[in-house]
Specification:
By secondary structure, the chain is of the alpha/beta class. Helices cover 33% and strands 27% of the residues. The strands form 2 sheets. Strands 6-7-8-3-9-10 form a 6-stranded mixed sheet, with helices on both faces. Strand 4 and strand 5 form a beta hairpin. The longest helix is centred in the last third of the chain and has 16 residues. This is Cell division ATP-binding protein FtsE.
Length: 227
């Protein structure tokens, strides 16, 4: 029996008063890796924002890691986000803190108190993204690819049930994109569930997986032809 991590039924997504996506039906199970593709402005970011509570769901049924997106209260959102790992295109690292302090900040903000456990958790996630030796550096001392690895490590801190990666390779050159993708695939192979929005079709060809496409206010599964 596969475990459902995300389920949307007859969902419409709005940005203000304008409908971005309609009649969305989608399900993700534990361990899945799914791409979300579509042109700029096709609704990928709105789709993602709805899943982590940045846009309110007002039409249809939506469940993400045991939270009902329709009935969720404002003060539930931080708890939902603790069960999610979110990776953004622009890293969002705090520039005035070292990598270790960036990660420590997140753990403390989410209720971790034991210094030894905090240190062990930081080491563990940096190990997962092959960045164990970089903890003492500041973000500006790292390359874009390294910063994105740190952002992925940060997303893993609270052992999320679902990772939402919104254009994680959008600011990276092709070679670095592949390196970051390899990290995401490794994490997925270790059991993490990942939904990744991207417009990098080269990655889809190199690492084929289930693909959803946003187009003309709809979301549908793209069947990839076997070469």
């Amino acid at each position: 029996m596969s475990e459902t991590v995300l389920q949307l039924k007859n969902v419409s997504i709005y940005q203000g008063d304008s409908m971005v996506l309609s009649d969305v039906n989608f399900e993700m199970n534990k361990g899945d890796f799914v791409y979300l593709i579509g042109k700029t402005g096709s609704g990928k970011s709105s789709f993602m924002k709805t899943l982590y509570g940045d846009l309110q769901l007002t039409e249809g049924e939506g469940h993400v890691v045991d939270y009902n997106l329709r009935t969720m209260k404002e003060n539930d959102i931080p708890f939902l986000r603790r069960k999610l790992g979110i990776v953004f295109q622009d890293f969002k690292l705090l520039p005035d803190r070292t990598i270790n302090n960036n990660l420590e900040f997140v753990l403390k903000a989410t209720g971790w108190k034991d210094k030894t456990k905090i240190k062990e958790r930081i080491e563990a996630v940096l190990g997962k993204v092959a960045m164990k030796t970089k903890g003492f550096k500041f973000p500006h001392e790292l390359s874009g690819g390294e910063q994105q690895r740190i952002a992925i490590a940060r997303a893993l801190l609270n052992d999320p049930e679902l990772i939402l990666a919104d254009e994680p390779t959008g600011n990276l050159d092709p070679q670095t994109s592949i390196e970051v993708m390899e990290v995401l695939r490794d994490i997925n192979n270790n059991g993490n569930t990942i939904l990744m929005a991207t417009h990098d079709y080269a990655l889809l060809l190199k690492y084929p997986s289930k693909t959803l496409k946003c187009d003309e206010n709809k979301v549908f599964e793209v069947v990839q032809r076997k070469s």
